[in-house]
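Weekly sync, protein design subgroup
Attendees: M.S., D.O., the rotation student, P.L. (late)

Item 1: inverse folding check
M.S. brought a backbone from last month's batch and wanted to see whether the design step gives back something sensible before we order anything. D.O. pointed out we never logged the input encoding, so this time it goes straight into the notes. Structure tokens as presented (279 positions):
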């Protein structure tokens, strides 16, 4: 890996990039981001990620520095320069650089940054499943915006790690919303449940693909939030995200989910997902 960075519309070596201390991403977390998976050199669902980036930016009244078609071109050029086969493409757009003041500075230009992170598919986790804990969802009320403000997620994930788990399942008012960096699904009496795509969750791209696969496979689906106690009675639970795909959760708060092994509906969805990525 050459460790090249897309900075604005230029591709630079990492040590050539200078981030200003008055960048509003640094001072306020004032910006939005995306993580795109790259399989065999090709970005997966790039269009969907760029559309979500546009929506997130509009929701915080941030004007993207370039049209999305140009951002797409720049990202593809970065991938070509890096020659990354498998991994993640991270991009963020900050509102820009200005003396510190909460209100939007006038005439500010948004700052695009992107780079690649090589990594293989999480095959062991996909095969065996992972452990999760539950914790309160202390985040704000616009979780549909993929904002750089991630403290609620960071604190939840750290609790999971300290308790020997992979993910923290977030509970708001007694109902499961999503994971700290994933969407959560449960299978109850053969029906697949997940929180509706409203302001309390990120509208995950893997979530959407999973719902498509379920519908195509004739698995009954309900976009309805599960109560915390219902989650613990589910036959199967799994998480979805760009980096973790469809990953079984086999234990929650120290108690096995169902048989304690990845279940048949999760397996069918995983197979359908792999067909969609075409590898
Ligand atoms: N996380 N929910 C939250 C809170 C997330 O941060 C993410 C993604 C998801 C899954 O969305 P998608 O399927 O579009 O990746 C759900 C990314 C990968 C991250 O922050 O690293």
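Designed sequence read out in the meeting:
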């Amino acid at each position: 890996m050459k460790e090249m960075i897309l900075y604005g519309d230029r591709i630079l070596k990492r040590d050539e990039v200078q981030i200003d201390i008055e960048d509003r991403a640094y001072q306020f977390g004032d910006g939005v981001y995306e993580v795109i998976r790259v399989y065999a050199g090709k970005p997966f669902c790039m269009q969907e990620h760029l559309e979500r980036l546009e929506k997130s930016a509009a929701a915080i009244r941030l004007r993207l520095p370039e049209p999305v078609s140009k951002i797409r071109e720049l990202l593809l050029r970065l991938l070509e320069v890096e020659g990354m086969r498998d991994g993640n493409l991270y991009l963020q757009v900050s509102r820009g650089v200005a003396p510190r003041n909460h209100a939007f500075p006038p005439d500010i230009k948004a700052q695009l940054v992107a780079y690649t992170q090589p990594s293989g598919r999480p095959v062991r986790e996909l095969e065996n499943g992972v452990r999760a804990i539950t914790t309160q969802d202390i985040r704000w009320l616009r979780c549909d915006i993929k904002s750089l403000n991630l403290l609620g997620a960071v604190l939840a994930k750290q609790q999971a790690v300290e308790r020997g788990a992979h993910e923290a399942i977030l509970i708001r008012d007694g109902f499961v919303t999503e994971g700290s960096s994933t969407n959560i699904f449960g299978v109850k009496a053969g029906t697949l449940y997940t929180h509706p795509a409203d302001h309390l969750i990120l509208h995950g791209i893997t979530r959407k693909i999973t719902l498509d696969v379920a519908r195509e496979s004739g698995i009954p689906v309900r976009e309805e939030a599960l109560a915390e106690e219902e989650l613990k009675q589910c036959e199967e639970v799994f998480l979805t995200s760009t980096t973790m795909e469809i990953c079984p959760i086999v234990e929650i708060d120290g108690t096995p989910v169902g048989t304690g092994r990845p279940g048949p509906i999760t397996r069918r969805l995983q197979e359908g997902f792999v067909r969609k990525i075409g590898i």
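Discussion: The mean pLDDT is 97. Helices lie at 24-28, 46-59, 68-82, 123-128, 151-162, 205-216, 228-233, 264-277.
Action: P.L. to compare against the previous round before Friday.
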